Amino acid sequence: MRAWLLFLILAAPAMAEEITLSDTCPPSFQMLVDGTCELVTLYQFYDSPPQHGGLRARLDPPARRYTPQQIDLGRYLFFDPILSDGGDLSCASCHDPAQGFSDGKKRGIGAVELDRSTPTLWNVGFAQSLMWDGRTETLEAQALLPLLNPDEMAATVEGVETALNAAPGYVALFQIAFGAAPNIANTVIALAAFQSSLISLNSRYDRYAHGDATALNPQEIRGMNAFRGFVARCSQCHIPPLFTDFELAVVGAPADERGFADPGAGALSDDPARLGAFKTPTLRNITRTAPYFHAGQFDTLKGVVDFYNNTAGHAAPKGQDLRIHWHVHMTNGPKLSTATVADIIAFLAALEDENLMPERPAVLPSEPRP
């Protein structure tokens, strides 16, 4: 009899584990009295003027805060293809954690191949402008663009809301996170909440900046000094500690291999200074996100450094009247030695940090439950 009961227990289907939302803030965040999570880093305890760019530059936490439940709900949504029109693309399809939250392609692929590459999402919660052409200022507004773009996830507001409300798992989780049924407004808030938790500020460079003199080797220190120097001028746009200034800049980027010369922010403005302007990307985890530039024009970091180590405008698309940023040197020919180029590339590798990589959900709320 006991053997028969044991057989029934072993033969019975396993009970599905209930999906719950975290009630604790992600690592490196503290919970405030209002129940929201605020980032805590050593950088916020330094005192420096804005755009300081030095080792111990002040960096305040992002002003927009979210609850642990909203962040965790956003994590499920980020990995779930339920948001796309065909149910086959998720945010993580392009922003792959294994690829530095990019995709390793020259240009992103949604419903069709796109004209621009997929940018990383590390530290995107600090961003003051988003998208390659800076067209949005908040993560919530940004989340709608790929979601509703017919060339990307090709969803509609009605389709997203219908799909989420048809998934009992999500109905319950939205009630926990927002006290309301799923709708497009709280969906993009949850996605923004999760993306704001993607923090990369604990690289070997950061340990050096905070006082560990052994964190960088001699070549990396030389590269850092060249990076910050007046000849290379890298840090004038890629300002530490985020290694971006979130500004639009015209650097004379070449056309892509198809011959397409992207007008960048010039497509959104009549200002001739915007033609060919693109947002300065962060260099955090840059070794994980090749190829580089807005359409993957360069396969390697050496290719990128060599581009800047040449005459301004030397690779610019013919026929574009570009107002190239004054930070790009106008003198002819290379300015940095081969050794210095190698030093800068070595320094960029010291910006790697994925210690706070979020966990990919083992089960999604949209999946059928036994």
Descriptive notes:
By secondary structure, this protein is mainly alpha-helical. It folds into 2 domains: 158 residues, Cytochrome c-like domain (Cytochrome Bc1 Complex, Chain D, domain 2, Orthogonal Bundle), CATH 1.10.760.10; 146 residues, Cytochrome Bc1 Complex, Chain D, domain 2 (Orthogonal Bundle), CATH 1.10.760. Helix content is 28%, strand content 3%. The chain is built from 11 helices and 4 strands, in the order H-E-E-H-H-H-H-H-H-H-H-E-E-H-H. The strands form 2 sheets. The protein has a two-stranded antiparallel ribbon with strand order 1-2. A hairpin with a 5-residue loop joins strand 1 and strand 2. Helix 2 runs antiparallel to helix 6 and helix 9 packs across helix 11. The chain is globular. It starts with a helix and ends in a 21-residue tail after the last helix.
Key terms for this structure?
two-stranded antiparallel sheet, 370 residues, globular, single chain, 11 helices, mainly alpha
